[in-house]
Amino acid sequence: MEKFPVQNLVGKKIKTLNAIGSADSRFWKIDYYENQIFHKGNPEVEEFNCSFGLNEPFVFGFDDCSTFEIQIVGICYCFSENQLSCTDGNGLNIQAMNANILFKEVLDSVITDIEIGENISIITDSGFSLDFYSFDSNHTGISLCKNNQTVKKLAKECFLARIIPYSSYLQENHNTGSFFWITPAIESDDEKSWYGMDRASEAQLSIEEDAVEDELSEYLIKYFDPSIHKICRTFEPYEYDHWKSNIYTYETMEKMIADLEKDGGWDNLVIQLKLMMHHYPNYKFIEFMGP
Question: pTM to 2 decimals?
Answer without folding.
Answer: 0.52
